[in-house]
Amino acid sequence: MPRRPTLPPVLLDHVLAMLEDVPVGLLLLDAECRPLWCNEEAARACAVWNHGERPAAALRARKAFRVPAALAAACAEFHADPDTPTKVVSDNSRGLHARIKLHAAPGEPVPAFHIQLDYRRPRGDRHRPLSPGAVALLARLSEREREVAMRVREGLRTTEIAAELHRSPLTIKTQLAAIFNKLGVRGRTRVAALLNR
Fold it and tell me: What 3-state class would DSSP assign to 165?
């Protein structure tokens, strides 16, 4: 059987960049449950799973990355029952769901866990009043940037913000970059943390 061709490094970089924008968390673990790769959405979902929503919003998800115990336990069950094709793990109180598959690539003797993470963020605090500090931060932004920042506070993803505001995802990304620059932060989790104080 012919082996699948390997991707040239330039193409691999494009594929990985494209996977960062997928609105579902993607996590790849080796057979011993050690992380091999994840996108930002998966890192965020794992941070919420490990720490809870509020503490996770203040973390840099990739730097604080750790495989949640519930996922590690489900992966360990695959070794006990390898005939099960897929396992689903959920924490409904936090809106977290994971679909786990044990997959062996053709020609590769060691399998890996392919995990899709879905974090349906609770939106219960959507109408919570802003603190004076959050109002002062929003005053630094333009009106259109404030609309985006408020939706980041609510936990909406780029595509959801774009749909709600009838703008393109590229426009939202540009406005997010301006928000990060004006507030002196590096990511949307920090924006959400500052506006939810």
Answer: helix
